[in-house]
């Protein structure tokens, strides 16, 4: 049932997204405008550009080039901080739905789909393949994620070098909770492999607004340390520091040529899906 639910959720999300998206921005399976050329006898009349005919009174064929299908790898942070909740909904819940929807959309586009789950004990890896059974297995692995411990240590990064040597589009879903720049070090490692990288920084509304409905004691999910906070007194200073942190993070990503977007767990997935299509169009293999 878990697999079926996640699969159904992804399908419903993508179907709704594709129905609502501007048809002119999605040409189908990888078609991108290349150039015009004069009509020649025998050309398919469906390729005639009637707007060009209206302007020039001459027949032109609109030629397109086909994108090569790419390999897309979903990376999920499964450290304990991803268990942070806002109500009954956790960051890892959001990461699952986002990862499943991106995988479903990529499969729909004809791309090979793979998975990395970044665990305290190492990295779980699924090779990138393009078939529905593989997609079903990916959904299953997303359902099995149980966040615990701290972020994956560099000693485990060797797993990243054992796969295909082709350039991939890596979609990293994380809350960027780290010590000693562990996640930045990972991104630097991935950059050495010349992959295209997209980072979705997942935040919950209660941590953005520092609104935890009267709680005064807070626990670090990865270290177990606790701290007492008066939310009302701390809120203004907290929001200022959070804004500085997010801007510094944005600059770090920009310096590494990584596409970066913050995304809140109460936001719909549409913008993340648009960002995926935008970055996908930049990658050629």
Please give a structural write-up.
Residues 35-242 form the DUF58 domain. It holds the Pfam family DUF58. With 285 residues, the chain is of the alpha/beta class. It folds into two domains: 2-8 and 69-280, 3-Layer(aba) Sandwich (Rossmann fold); 31-66, no CATH class. Helices cover 38% and strands 24% of the residues. The protein has eight helices and twelve strands. The strands form four sheets. It has a six-stranded mixed beta sheet, with helices on both faces. α3 packs antiparallel against α4. Residues 22-34 have low confidence and may be disordered.
List the helices and strands and how they pair.
Blueprint: H1 2-20, E1 31-38, H2 50-56, E2 60-66, E3 71-77, E4 85-86, E5 89-90, H3 91-108, E6 112-119, E7 122-129, H4 132-144, E8 169-174, H5 182-192, E9 196-203, H6 205-209, E10 217-219, E11 226-228, H7 231-255, E12 259-264, H8 270-280
Parallel strand pairs: 3-6, 3-8, 8-9, 9-12
Antiparallel strand pairs: 1-2, 4-5, 6-7, 10-11
Helix pairs in contact: 1-3, 1-4, 3-4
Total number of beta strands: 12
Q: Which radius of gyration do the C-alpha atoms yield?
A: 22 Å
Multimeric status of the protein = single chain
User: How helical, in percent, are the residues?
Assistant: 25-40%
Low-confidence stretches: 22-34
**Count of separate DSSP helical elements:** 8
Mean pLDDT: 84
The CATH C-level name of the largest domain is Alpha Beta
State the CATH superfamily name of the largest domain: von Willebrand factor, type A domain
Write down the CATH topology of the largest domain. Rossmann fold
The CATH architecture of the largest domain can be named as 3-Layer(aba) Sandwich
In total, the number of domains comes to 2
Strand order of the largest sheet: 7-6-3-8-9-12
Please describe the biggest sheet, giving its number of strands, its sense, and whether it closes into a barrel: 6 strands, mixed
Q: Report the structural category.
A: alpha/beta
- Principal-axis shape: globular
Summarize the helix and strand pattern as letters.
HEHEEEEHEEHEHEHEEHEH
Beta-strand residue fraction: 15-25%
